[in-house]
Amino acid sequence: MLKISHIRQLQLLFRAVTITQSHSQLPGASYTYRNDELRSPALLSSLVNSTRSVGLTASLQKYNKKDVESDSDDEEVTEFKDERDSKVVKTKVNSLRADLILKAGLGIARNKVENIFYESRIRVNGKKLQKKSVQLHDGDEIDVIRGFSQQNPSHLVISRVIILAADPREEGFSVQLRRYKSLLIENYPGANAYKSSGSVEH
Fold first, then answer.
1. pLDDT over 70 at 66, yes or no
2. Higher pLDDT pick, 14 / 182
């Protein structure tokens, strides 16, 4: 496999090369070159050794980005899969504001997110959301409380969005979110507990 430093070296060597049938041919190589280009013994030696050792013609034909070790470490994007009770949502958002993440993750209108917020039905990592503009991060969990369970009144029925990955882009972020449409959980402790007389089916 050709390394990027090797490829760049050969690209420099061939930059001055003109392939033509009417010029002098280098022994042992499959290319022809102008006489006025064959001035450096070191360059000739490097070129001949390269063509003989790595099979230059065949290697260049097979060369592609997958065969090269890049000097820069490009981060691989992890692909998350759907689970039995959840779905992975891939989308773009302008920022990682809590209200925008909820809108994207649950597919609900922004004005409905506002209503849910003013009804104190949003929790972030188990705590009551105080500001809609709070910036979230990878791994954060955002819950929307739908109400108490009819079958188990001490538990809540919620929808949940988890930020799996957030990759910055030129404009905003590319995010992967895990969406749970309906979960049954215990009520939140202390001041974060939900208090209401309404109930829903789970």
1. no
2. 182
